[in-house]
Write a structure and sequence with these properties.
246 residues; disordered N terminus; 33% helix; Rossmann fold; 7 helices; single chain
C-alpha cells in the first residue's frame, strides 16, 4: 500500500525500494496499486466528513480546503494529493521513494495541478513548515521506529489542524484477508505487508497521545464482494482515525 515515508532514522530502505518498484504503474487502476484505487473513495469520503466537522464546512461545497494547506505523508504517486488539491488545498506530498515523486509530479503537471512533491520523510520538512491537514494512509505499518515517526507527524501539524490516518489492524481477520488472500493471490504485491507490524487502534491511539495528539474519531474500513470497500463499524480489517492536538 502507500509507501513508507518517515523520518531519516525510521525509513526502512527495503520498504522504500519495494514501493519505488511500483511507481511506473501506480496510476493504472488495474496495476500493482489497484487496491489503492479501490480504497480511495471511502478514504476521501471519511476525510471530507472530518474536514466539514472540524472546520464547520458546507458538506455540499466543492472546495472546503480553500485557504488551507495539506500534507500527505507517504504519498506514493499522488493518488490522495490530487483530490486534496481539487478540494482547494495547497498540497505537499512527501515519500521515501524518489521514483514515486517523479511519477507523482509528472501526473500532477499533466492534470494542471500545482502540487509540491518532495522525496524523503518528515525530517526533510523545515522547522516552520506546518499544515492544516495532515494525512498518512497505510504508512505507519511500514516504518521502523514508530514513536519517532509519530513525533514527526505531530510536528508537521499546525495548531488547530487535523490529522487523518489509516492502517491495517493486527487481527486474525487482517492476517487472512491481507496476507493469505490478497498477497497470496496477487491482489497486493507479495511482500507489501508484515502482519506483525500492524497496529491495533489502542496501540496507535497511545502513540499519538505520547506525541501530544488526541484521537477524536475511529472508523472501520470494511469490504464485501457486493459493495467493495466502504466505511463501517468494524475495525477488524483496517481503520481510519482522526486526531487533533490535545
Amino acid at each position: 500500500m502507500d509507501s513508507a515515508t518517515v523520518t531519516t532514522q525510521t525509513i526502512d530502505p527495503r520498504e522504500a525500494a519495494h514501493f519505488g518498484r511500483m511507481a511506473a504503474d501506480w496510476w493504472d487502476p488495474k496495476g500493482s496499486s489497484a487496491m489503492l484505487h479501490k480504497l480511495n473513495p471511502p478514504r476521501l469520503a471519511y476525510i471530507r466528513e472530518q474536514i466539514d466537522a472540524h472546520w464547520g464546512g458546507d458538506a455540499q461545497g466543492f472546495a472546503p480546503l480553500v485557504g488551507r494547506s495539506a500534507l500527505d505523508i507517504g504519498c506514493g504517486a499522488g493518488l490522495l494529493c490530487e483530490p486534496l488539491a481539487r478540494l482547494g488545498a495547497q498540497v505537499m506530498g512527501i515519500d521515501a521513494a524518489p521514483e514515486n515523486i517523479v511519477v507523482a509530479d509528472q501526473h500532477a503537471r499533466g492534470g494542471g495541478l500545482d502540487i509540491a512533491y518532495r522525496a524523503g520523510g518528515v525530517a526533510a520538512l523545515a522547522a516552520d513548515e506546518r499544515f492544516d491537514l495532515v494525512t498518512c494512509m497505510e504508512v505507519i505499518e511500514h516504518v521502523v521506529d514508530r514513536p519517532a515517526f509519530i513525533r514527526g507527524v505531530a510536528g508537521a501539524l499546525a495548531d488547530g489542524g487535523l490529522l487523518v490516518m489509516s492502517t491495517p489492524n493486527r487481527t486474525a481477520v487482517s492476517r487472512v484477508a491481507m496476507i493469505a488472500v490478497a498477497e497470496g493471490t496477487g491482489l497486493i504485491p507479495r511482500g507489501t505487508h508484515d502482519w506483525h507490524r500492524f497496529l491495533t487502534p489502542d496501540e496507535l491511539t497511545a502513540l499519538l497521545a505520547d506525541a501530544g495528539l488526541r484521537v477524536i474519531d475511529v472508523r472501520g474500513l470494511v469490504v464485501s464482494p457486493a459493495t467493495g470497500f466502504a466505511l463501517g463499524a468494524s475495525t477488524a480489517l483496517d481503520y481510519l482515525l482522526t486526531a487533533t492536538r490535545a
